[in-house]
C-alpha cells in the first residue's frame, strides 16, 4: 500500500482540479450500509419495491416504512468519517475542484465540504408533490408518526428528495457533474461500485478528457482496466494516508 500511496501523492502534487467521486462505500464507515457488496442493504430490501418511483406512486407505504424503520435511524446516527474530513482538508489545500456524490446522506456537507454535487438528491429533505413545500428529515419523521403515508399541511402527498429507481437525475446536477468531469485533472473514485448509470459514466468522461483516474474501492469495478491506479482498500484509510 505504501508504494501506491507514494504514487498517489505524486499524482495529487501535480493536480489542482481534483474531482472526488463518492459512492455508498465512502459512508460505510459512518455506519450507513452500502446497497451492493457484502452486507449490502439490497439483500434485505428489494430496490424495485422499496425505492422504485412507479411502485411509490401506486403505494408509497413501502418506501415510507423503509424510511421510518431503516433510513431515518441510520442517517440520524451517522457522523462523517475520516474520509469526509480528509476531503475537506484537500479542499482547504486548494486541491478539490468538485465533490460529486451519489450519496444521499449529506455527510460531506456536515463535515464542512463547500462544493458538493448531489447526483441522487438528498434524504435530508422531502417535497410536497402538490404545493412544493419542503420538509426536513425530522419534520418528515414527525409527520410519519401521525399518518402513513405522511401528508403535507396542504393535504398533498410527500416525496423523498432522493432520486428513486426509474426517475431521471436532476438535470442541473448532471450537467455540473459532466462539466466537472470534463475539466478535472484527477478523477478520484471513492467507494463506488461504478455500476449505477448515468453517474458511472463520469469516470469515463474524465479519462477521455485526459484526466488521471484513480479508483479506491474494496471490490473490483468494471472500470478498473482504464484506471491509472487502483486501491482495494478502505477509502478513508487511503485518504488519511494521503493527507
Ligand atoms: P454500491 O452500494 O453499489 O457500491 C459500494 C461499493 O463500495 C462496493 O463496491 C464496495 O466494495 C465498496 N466499499 C464498501 N466499503 C468501502 C470502504 N470503506 N472503502 C472503499 N470502498 C468500499 O454504491 P454506489 O456505487 O454508490 O451506487 C449505489 C447507489 O447507492 C447510489 O445511487 C447511492 O445513491 C446509493 N446509496 C447511498 C448511500 C448513502 O447515501 N450513504 C448508502 C447506500 C446506497
Q: Could you characterize what this model shows?
A:
With 243 residues, the chain is an alpha/beta fold. The model has no long low-confidence stretch (mean pLDDT 94). The chain has two domains: 1-32 and 80-120 and 169-243, Rossmann fold; 33-77 and 122-162, SIR2/SIRT2 'Small Domain', CATH 3.30.1600. Helix 5 crosses helix 8 (137-146). The strands form two sheets. A six-stranded parallel β-sheet has the order 3-2-1-7-8-9, with helices on both faces. Strands 5-4-6 form a three-stranded antiparallel β-sheet. Helix 7 (107-111) links the parallel strand 2 and strand 3 (116-118). It has helices at 2-13, 24-27, 47-50, 53-58, 61-77, 82-92, 107-111, 137-146, 171-183, 202-208, 235-242; strands at residues 18-22, 96-101, 116-118, 121-128, 134-136, 158-162, 186-190, 212-216, 229-231. It is built from eleven helices and nine strands. The two termini are 15 Å apart. The structure holds nicotinamide-adenine-dinucleotide. Residues 23-25, 27-29, 32, 34-37, 40-41, 102-105, 120, 191-193, 196, 216-219, 234-235 line the site of nicotinamide-adenine-dinucleotide (NAD). The site of nicotinamide-adenine-dinucleotide has 28 residues, from helix 2.
Break the fold down into its secondary structure elements and pairings.
Blueprint: H1 2-13, E1 18-22, H2 24-27, H3 47-50, H4 53-58, H5 61-77, H6 82-92, E2 96-101, H7 107-111, E3 116-118, E4 121-128, E5 134-136, H8 137-146, E6 158-162, H9 171-183, E7 186-190, H10 202-208, E8 212-216, E9 229-231, H11 235-242
Parallel strand pairs: 1-2, 1-7, 2-3, 7-8, 8-9
Antiparallel strand pairs: 4-5, 4-6
Helix pairs in contact: 5-8, 6-11, 9-10
Amino acid at each position: 500500500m505504501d508504494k501506491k500511496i507514494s504514487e498517489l501523492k505524486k499524482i495529487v502534487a501535480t493536480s489542482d482540479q481534483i474531482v472526488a467521486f463518492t459512492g455508498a462505500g465512502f459512508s460505510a464507515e459512518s455506519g450507513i450500509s452500502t446497497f451492493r457488496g457484502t452486507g449490502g442493504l439490497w439483500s434485505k430490501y428489494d430496490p424495485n419495491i422499496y425505492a422504485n418511483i412507479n411502485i411509490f406512486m401506486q403505494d408509497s407505504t413501502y418506501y415510507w416504512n423503509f424510511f421510518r424503520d431503516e433510513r431515518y435511524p441510520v442517517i440520524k446516527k451517522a457522523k462523517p468519517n475520516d474520509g469526509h474530513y480528509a476531503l475537506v482538508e484537500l479542499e482547504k489545500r486548494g486541491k478539490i475542484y468538485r465533490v460529486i456524490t451519489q450519496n444521499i446522506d449529506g455527510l460531506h456537507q456536515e463535515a464542512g465540504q463547500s462544493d458538493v454535487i448531489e447526483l441522487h438528491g438528498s434524504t435530508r429533505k422531502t417535497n410536497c408533490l402538490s404545493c412544493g413545500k419542503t420538509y426536513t428529515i425530522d419534520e418528515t419523521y414527525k409527520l410519519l408518526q401521525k399518518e402513513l403515508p405522511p401528508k403535507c399541511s396542504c393535504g398533498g402527498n410527500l416525496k423523498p428528495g432522493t432520486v428513486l429507481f426509474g426517475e431521471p437525475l436532476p438535470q442541473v446536477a448532471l450537467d455540473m457533474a459532466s462539466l466537472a468531469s470534463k475539466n478535472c485533472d484527477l478523477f478520484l473514485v471513492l467507494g463506488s461500485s461504478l455500476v449505477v448509470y448515468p453517474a458511472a459514466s463520469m469516470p469515463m468522461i474524465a479519462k477521455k478528457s485526459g484526466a488521471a483516474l484513480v479508483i479506491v474501492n474494496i471490490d473490483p469495478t468494471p472500470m478498473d482496466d482504464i484506471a491509472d491506479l487502483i486501491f482495494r482498500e478502505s477509502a478513508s484509510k487511503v485518504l488519511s494516508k494521503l493527507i
